[in-house]
Specification:
276 residues, alpha/beta, Rossmann fold, 33% helix, 24% strand
């Protein structure tokens, strides 16, 4: 690619394809924002590190198992509980079959099961096997090689779409796996949040695209049913963590304290999409 071709490419938003709309957001991370569609993405994303390895490094070998299984597990339990609370509020919550893509330890799958819903998870990293909280996890990728044996009433993508090079094609594939009345639940960052835009720690160098509300509103053959934003001190603290003692403090702090608060400027976005 010559210099001129590269300049033309960089002047276009790779999400909405508009011209001359890109500006730096976190320059040190090669992160840009589109002024027209509000998408935020990495110009040259690095290969995603497996989170379990990062957590192991932070916690150390001696307390690794306790730290990941108990502390990180409880952290993910709290988030899963918030997802369930949201879905109960925004839907009739009568799902027969649910698929959680990017299931991690399986905390959300377990919460669905506890509510009498047949849920299963799909996780790309089999390194999480030793820390799983359920046996209803399959290890692999959600792509054309994923064998769909049933249709799902709900497919969830929680904190994982921004790692994908083409999240739209993944959502289009998910549409084929849904029942007639099925829907998609997504949790991601709110790209319009000043909280998000002023803290570069929210954006990992391995992120590809953090889609905006405008992006979700304009996906072909989908209707945006709901877009609710939250502020989460727990997630902010986790993003800003510096050492093990901080993680331990947050574990006790948010064991009792409400961890999500609805806020128009919140950095977390919960989304419901329905095929049309």
């Amino acid at each position: 690619m010559n210099v001129m071709e590269n300049e033309i490419l960089e002047s276009h938003c790779k999400v909405c394809l508009s011209k001359n709309c890109i500006e730096d957001l976190f320059k040190e991370k090669n992160c840009v924002v589109c002024k027209k569609c509000d998408a935020i993405y990495s110009v040259n994303p690095i290969v995603h590190k497996k989170r379990v390895n990062e957590e192991s490094e932070i916690l150390g070998d001696i307390i690794k198992k306790m730290g990941i299984k108990i502390i990180s597990g409880r952290y993910r339990d709290i988030i899963a509980e918030q997802y369930i609370e949201y879905l109960k509020k925004k839907t009739i919550f009568k799902f027969n079959h649910v698929l959680d893509v990017g299931a991690h330890f399986g905390n959300l799958v377990k919460k669905f099961n506890e509510n009498g819903i047949a849920a299963e998870g799909l996780e790309a990293s089999d390194e999480y096997k030793k820390f799983t909280v359920t046996d209803k996890i399959t290890y692999g990728y959600f792509d054309e090689n994923f064998l769909v044996e049933k249709k799902y009433d709900l497919i969830s993508f929680t904190n994982m779409l921004y790692y994908l090079k083409n999240p739209i094609s993944t959502l289009e594939y998910a549409k084929k796996c849904l029942t007639k009345s099925g829907m998609i639940f997504i949790s991601t960052y709110n790209t319009n949040s000043s909280i998000f835009r002023q803290n570069n720690k929210f954006f990992e160098p391995s992120y590809n695209i953090v889609q905006s509300r405008k992006n979700f509103e304009t996906i072909n053959d989908f209707k945006l049913i709901d877009y609710t934003t939250y502020d989460s001190e727990m997630i902010t603290n986790a993003v800003n963590k510096t050492n093990y003692s901080d993680i331990l403090k947050n574990y006790f702090k948010f064991y009792f304290k409400k961890s999500f608060k609805e806020n128009n400027n919140g950095h977390q976005a919960f989304i419901l999409l329905k095929p049309v």
